[in-house]
Amino acid sequence: MRLKFQLDDLQVFCIAARKASFAAAATELGMSPAFVSKRIAILEKDLGVSLFHRAARRVTVTEDGERVYASAQQIFEGVDHMGEAVAGGRLDPRGVLRVTTSFRLGRMHIGPILSLLAQQHPDLDITLDAVDRRVDLISENVDLDVRIAEVDEPHLVAHRLAPSTRILCAAPSYLARHGPPGSIAELSQHECLVLRDRNQAFGVWQLSGPQGPEKVKVRGRLSSNNAEIVRGWASDGHGILLQARWDVADDLRAGRLIPLLPACTQPADIWAASTVRLSQSAKVRVCVRFLQQHLASGPFALSEPLSG
Question: DSSP assignment, residue 26?
Answer without folding.
Answer: H
